[in-house]
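Sat 14:20. Reprocessing the chain from the morning session after the first attempt stalled halfway. Input below, unchanged.
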Amino acid sequence: MKNSDIIVRIENILQIKDILGKLDQLSPTDLQSLLLALYEKRSEKIATQSIFDQYEANRFVRPSDVSQRLFAEIELLAFDLLPSDFDIVELSPVAPFGTNSVLTKNNQKKIMSTVRNLEVCADSTTALILECARQRKNLLRSNAKDDQKVKYATSMRNIRLQNFESIPGFVPHFKALTLATAGRDCGSETFETQACLEHVAFYLDYLTHLSQKNFWVGDISVAFSDIRIMEKLIELLDLEREQLGRVTQDSGFDVFRNFQIPLPMSVKSMEEMPDEFIRAYGLEKSFSFLSVVEEKIMKILTNKYPEIGFSIDLERIAGIGYYSNLCFKIVARNQKGDIFPLVDGGMVDWTQKLLQSRKERAFASGFGTELFCRNFKI
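Finished this time. Tokens:
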């Protein structure tokens, strides 16, 4: 049943027209007081057995099947490997209401909202960026052009309301390790490339150490993208953004082939790209940027990690509306031969919005530690 049908049914039961409109006229504080009073009244009717029934049936309250001891072991390893200028913080499990829908354009229906104008953490990335913005604001008070970077890391549980049953390895709530770097634009894509290089190098070192501790990790590969390529193609070819959003987790969906776009899915070097295609789609800016990424990130990482596969993914759709330009993904194969996306990260414009300054820059990334533990433990 659609939400609109449910609302109509409720309006008919209560004989109140435009119930959402009327409730929306209340201030956040008044609505909170109303809902708190309602839930207090309903809690008085709850029987002990119904609590236990809920615990057994509700997918959001079930404990993880991964040992907390194992989480502690790999978290400690990560914290030991992190560069010393990263501050490791313990975040609150809740964030201001609307954090994810406003910053990342995620539908609020996917977020667990609370009656106190808060939301349960659905993405520790946004929570870390909020703290980055707070610290950057403090620095800017004394110097409006302060370029000092702030770096944070955390490991915490996230909860998502969408149904992941059809996606192997995905669960309603999960542990993730998250990094965030924020600072000021220093020209020539320097912030972007330095932050990305540091994040990717950390994760590759981390996976190397994990593979020596009863985890089997094979065929690690890293793909770099500029999400503006797909944004541009959506605009030029009038592609359906919602349709693309629905296939982001479908590894077999070939965007370019499906929409008859004569570009390769991925390349090992930007030298493989034919100039006529770049000019035809007006992608000069993105392809020039990816050439810088190849020179300042990929070549350095290739020399340091010759056993890792590096490429440029030209048709990436995951992250549209989330990342602003440069992004990356790390995937690996487990002992059974299954390939999983483990790490995702990129540039976000959230500190620009929060601090109302186009000069602010932020790079964030996350590693699905629970997904990794569940599928790569020997």
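The first helix runs from residue 3 to 14.
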